[in-house]
């Protein structure tokens, strides 16, 4: 980096690396947990008509309060979770990343601390640090599973850190693990004056009987649940994420958002998509089926998968994750090396994509296998 630029850059940002999942033009892209299904024709038509209509009015700023979108998102959440979410409880941004940024801008900052339980979504620390908030890397891992987080483990770390913000992710990226609600309840109880953010980006893919933390919002004014249209709704390119929380908390986010942060086309695309949610969400069941097939077949191949409630699977048993990542890429399949030794993460795609991935895994020479001791034990040791 140019010396003058490096010298002027905030000291806490020097030497940091930006988010950088590879965007490569390969036949099978299963590395960023997108929805592999293209937007269906009826939704394309509705989006096109809605955007055409907004084009006439682009001389004007959009509705700063995105009122219609909030109403639509609240109605969607009510139908999905059975919880009586009102439009005043909903906030939206350009992806849930921006929604998370608004939260940290409003409730973090220099001198404040955020705690997360690693491995979790890699953007939680990056977003946190952009605001000068101190990040504390907590750990997951219980005797029953290296990537589990139970109430006791979470509460011990909350008590030790006394954070202003706690991030939990359910289903968790990159492990796929959903939390039981007692963990969220215990964290809120242990940190009664802290913001507790439950990132539910993958909630729609959870297996039956996995309740949303939306069911806990009532009476917990510092609890926030974030969601996105990038995954189940197959709209990653539109950049729309949202949250549900206490109306006063939502109100506070107005202090940090840029005016008119959600463009008219963005609002129009999101609204058209929600109005056609049935067409878009049919892919969810198909993706869950492929996810379960990946879990079953990888187990059969001797690469232990972590049980998943998301649209991806983390699996281990690899001698060298980077080498296997490259070998799969050489076979036209892009997966994610999330930095956990001996593990890779793969998104559940279409049946064809999933088959190509599984065939590539089955074809790998034996040298890709980890013949050492229990892989979970090793991952735990690597993080110790
Ligand atoms: N949370 C989690 C757990 C994620 O995995 C992602 C995207 N990979 C996001 C939030 C952000 O997604 P977006 O900004 O597209 O809503």
Q: Could you describe the 3D structure shown?
A:
The chain is of the alpha/beta class. Helices cover 40% and strands 12% of the residues. Strands 2-8-7-6-5-3-4 form a seven-stranded mixed β-sheet, sandwiched between helices. Strands 1-10 form a two-stranded parallel ribbon. A two-stranded antiparallel ribbon has the order 9-11. Helix 10 packs parallel to helix 12. Bound molecules: 4'-deoxy-4'-aminopyridoxal-5'-phosphate (PMP). 4'-deoxy-4'-aminopyridoxal-5'-phosphate (PMP) binds next to helix 4.
Detail the topology: elements first, then pairings.
Elements: H1 3-8, E1 28-29, H2 41-55, H3 67-81, E2 90-93, H4 95-107, E3 113-118, H5 123-130, E4 134-139, H6 151-161, E5 165-169, H7 181-190, E6 195-199, E7 223-228, E8 241-244, H8 247-253, H9 264-275, H10 277-301, E9 312-315, H11 321-330, E10 333-334, E11 344-347, H12 351-363, H13 375-383
Parallel strand pairs: 1-10, 3-4, 3-5, 5-6, 6-7
Antiparallel strand pairs: 2-8, 7-8, 9-11
Helix pairs in contact: 2-9, 3-9, 4-5, 6-7, 10-12
Bound molecules: 4'-deoxy-4'-aminopyridoxal-5'-phosphate (PMP).
4'-deoxy-4'-aminopyridoxal-5'-phosphate is lined by residues 33, 95-97, 121, 169, 173, 199, 201, 228, 230, 236, 241.
| Adjacency order of strands in the biggest sheet | 2-8-7-6-5-3-4
Number of beta-strand segments: 11
Bound molecules: 4'-deoxy-4'-aminopyridoxal-5'-phosphate
Which regions contain 5 or more consecutive residues with pLDDT less than 50?
none
User: Average pLDDT, to the nearest integer?
Assistant: 95
Choose one word for the global shape: globular
Order of helices and strands: HEHHEHEHEHEHEEEHHHEHEEHH
Helix content: 40-55%
Total of helices: 13
Q: What is the CA-CA span between the terminal residues?
A: 33 Å
Number of domains: 2
Largest sheet: 7 strands, mixed
CATH class descriptor name of the largest domain: Alpha Beta
Q: CATH superfamily of the largest domain, called what?
A: Type I PLP-dependent aspartate aminotransferase-like (Major domain)
The secondary-structure class comes to: alpha/beta
C-alpha-based Rg, rounded: 21 Å
CATH topology-level fold name of the largest domain: Aspartate Aminotransferase, domain 2
CATH architectural designation of the largest domain: 3-Layer(aba) Sandwich
- Note the beta-strand portion: 5-15%
């Amino acid at each position: 980096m140019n010396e003058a630029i490096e010298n002027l850059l905030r000291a806490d940002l020097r030497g940091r690396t930006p988010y950088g999942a590879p965007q490569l033009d390969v036949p099978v892209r299963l590395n960023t947990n997108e929805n592999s299904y293209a937007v269906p024709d009826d939704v394309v038509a509705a989006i096109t008509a809605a955007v055409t209509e907004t084009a006439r009015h682009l001389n004007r700023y959009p509705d700063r309060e995105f009122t219609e979108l909030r109403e639509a998102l609240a109605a969607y959440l009510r139908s999905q979770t059975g919880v009586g979410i009102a439009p005043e409880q909903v906030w939206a941004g350009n992806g849930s990343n921006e929604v998370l940024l608004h939260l940290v801008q409003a409730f973090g900052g220099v001198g404040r601390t955020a705690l997360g339980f690693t491995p979790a979504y890699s953007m939680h620390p990056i977003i946190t640090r952009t605001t000068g908030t101190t990040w504390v890397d907590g750990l997951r891992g219980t005797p029953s599973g290296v990537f589990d987080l139970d109430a006791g483990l979470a509460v011990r770390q909350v008590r030790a850190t006394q954070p202003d913000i706690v991030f939990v992710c359910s289903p968790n990226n990159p492990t796929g693990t959903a939390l039981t609600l007692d963990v969220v309840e215990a964290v809120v109880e242990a940190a009664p004056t802290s913001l507790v953010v439950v990132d539910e980006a993958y909630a729609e893919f959870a297996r039956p009987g996995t309740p949303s933390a939306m069911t806990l919002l009532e009476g917990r004014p510092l609890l926030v649940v974030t969601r996105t249209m990038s995954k189940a709704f197959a709209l990653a390119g539109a950049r729309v994420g949202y949250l549900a929380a206490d109306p006063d908390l939502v109100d506070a986010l107005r202090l940090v958002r840029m005016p008119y942060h959600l463009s008219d086309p963005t609002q129009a695309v999101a609204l058209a998509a929600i109005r056609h949610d049935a067409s878009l969400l049919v892919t969810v069941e198909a993706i869950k089926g492929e996810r379960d097939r990946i879990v079953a077949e990888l187990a059969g191949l001797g690469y232990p998968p972590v049980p998943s409630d998301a649209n991806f699977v983390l699996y281990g048993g690899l001698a060298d994750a980077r080498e296997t990542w490259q070998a799969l890429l050489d076979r036209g399949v892009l997966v994610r090396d999330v930095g956990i030794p001996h593990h890779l993460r793969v998104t559940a795609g279409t049946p064809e994509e999933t088959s190509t991935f599984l065939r590539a895994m089955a074809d790998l020479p034996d040298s890709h296998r980890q013949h050492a001791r229990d892989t979970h034990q090793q991952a735990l040791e690597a993080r110790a």
